[in-house]
């Protein structure tokens, strides 16, 4: 039997990243032999502790190995210093820039079980696709004096190229989600008859910048390759309200950088814990899976960190590497664990350990 080899860089980072990334690795290694996959893993350094030891939060070697030797990567978590630290900047932000990762993809999914802490009675299964390179995050600011005191200004940059690219990514994700549903027999959200992409913007006020984003996204999603999609749009403030009121109405949401950042963090509250929420940083030829939680120093070393976000991030990694069947196998095992609701970590109101959750997921694979 000929096996396909995937070379994965593992960047545990700080804190509980060193506990959940090994869990994700074990899940990848446990994929059924029928999928004909094998993995080669390379351990790489990044994070605040790496900065303290070496003076670099993101060593050049880490980037070089990712570019030359890896098909994808998993990133754990990063600690942020509590005071301004000369020479330090976030390694994951730097990694996104140096690896040209234009999209941050964050699925938000709940399951109905006795462990559920969400107030919503209907399952939530949506994805927020956030443009990752521009908007206010270009960090071009200035402050100048006026007779009435200092005034600060910031550049909000929206480009045709980046807007078209993120809309294309959102459309492709919607189509892939439907393929995975079809292959596993999972039904779409209630009331949805086809995969849907919702364009989020504020073009009623920002007619040039957000207006350009809206126009580009609409043009891309009208192309023949996306003809099976339902495409709608939502003003961002109304989007926030509806996301919390009827999250089950959404499938894929695409937004500029700032709105996507706010919506994705808020949406995590809908499912009860950041310990459940994965993400992927996606470029044209590389992807990094990354759980959305932080380094959680308060529980570091206690063996109770929730590994689900990391495991789901590994499934996302597989999706973007074209291994949809393998991704579906991981998603199904995680969902079954959560639906039963017997093996759950303290962040969800349980008493299970990281290892117990991992073993339960492995058993279901």
UniProtKB/TrEMBL annotation:
Enzyme class: oxidoreductase
Domain Isopropylmalate dehydrogenase-like, residue spans: 7-361
The name this protein goes by in its record: homoisocitrate dehydrogenase
Originating organism: Eremomyces bilateralis CBS 781.70
Family: Belongs to the isocitrate and isopropylmalate dehydrogenases family.
Biological process according to GO: isocitrate metabolic process; lysine biosynthetic process; tricarboxylic acid cycle
Keywords, alphabetical: Amino-acid biosynthesis, Lysine biosynthesis, Magnesium, Metal-binding, NAD, Oxidoreductase, Phosphoprotein
Pfam families: Iso_dh
One cellular-component annotation, GO: mitochondrion
InterPro entries xref list: IsoCit/isopropylmalate_DH_CS, IsoPropMal-DH-like_dom
EC number(s) given by UniProt: 1.1.1.87
Catalytic activities: (2R,3S)-homoisocitrate + NAD(+) = 2-oxoadipate + CO2 + NADH
